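Dig into this one:

. . .
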Amino acid sequence: MTYLLTFSCYGTHLHGDERGWPLMAADVRSAHVHVVLGCASSVERILAALKAAATRSLNRADGQLNRRRWSRGGSVRPLRTPEAVTAAIRYVVEGQGDPMSVYRGS
């Protein structure tokens, strides 16, 4: 199954092949993150793992180890058809305004 996952920074409204999650697209914004990836495991586990990895990176970058980074939960949308996957990738890569930090798989 392929999913569009979105999670936001705490206080706002608004891993790759080694772990068996083929990354198709990602866009890191100032207040949220969008990821399109394939997976066979629990999507909640994947969302938690992505947030944990992002937290470790941010902690290394700014040294604020006790800062709360993310709002609770996130949006998880299953993409059940190839057309839905294509539309989600387009949304993530092209539909977020000016690019900030974008990854688009092959």
Q: What stands out?
A: The chain has two helices and five strands. The domain at 2-104 is CATH 3.30.70.1290 (Alpha-Beta Plaits).
